[in-house]
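Aim 2 progress update. The chain analyzed this quarter is reproduced below.
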Amino acid sequence: MTRQTIRQPVAATGIALHSGAPVAMRLVPAPPGSGIVFRRIDLSADIAARFDGVTETRLGTVIAQGPAKVGVIEHLMAACAGLGVDDLLVELDGPEPPILDGDALSYVHLLDQAGLAKHGGTRSAIRVTKPVTVTQGDARASLLPANAPSYFYALDYPGIGRQEMALELTPQAFRREIAPARTFGFLSELEALHKMNLAKGASFDNTLALDGATVVNGDRQRFADEFVRHKILDAIGDMALAGGPLLARFEGRKSGHATNNLLLRALFADPAAFELVEL
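Predicted structure tokens:
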């Protein structure tokens, strides 16, 4: 398989989830081997989308290069991983991509609008050769050897209860089962988040809002188990920071962005745990 980018630039505007500021985004074709790079055009800074560039993981994955940061990249990264986009330049005039509908499907539509293009260069994957596991409190995440990328996640939240899902990651399954799942949050936490300058752009249009066991904007809910689907979406986006497709089974239990990043750091800290293979 050869590497893929997009055929032509495509743009979108919207609100940043945490800052609440308006932001303009432009997706631009990138050369073979360049990977996915976020460009803060307001700061004249380029930031490679890599696990070792992650500096924050509170309610979103943040990458940085010096003082320049880009947050909540996981939804766009999941769309790129789900569709097989290897090389892409993401131009932003603010601190986050626009949240759009709070899912990955909005970004999938943009990538479809731009069109995908094979543009040469060998496509390599990271094959996990032995189990790697990390834990944080009662959160646990693992990468297990597998012949194809797959995901399993189990969550257990007050009000939501326990939800589990397993998925073999293909472009078709991603589009149908994962990309439409919206992010979610709890109304009881909103005031505290606002005091921390977080979730200022969250709304009933882009976030499933939970009040106890009730989804306040249930008319926006697309799946009965949308919460676990979105956790898999986040995991796909975080694992895309490996720098190439992962030939592995991801298993997460109550894990989040922090655990996901620790998992990639643990993987690459052990040369015996992975090998590079050409697809």
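Residues 226-239 form the longest helix (14 residues). The chain has a mean pLDDT of 96. These observations will guide the mutagenesis experiments scheduled for the next reporting period.
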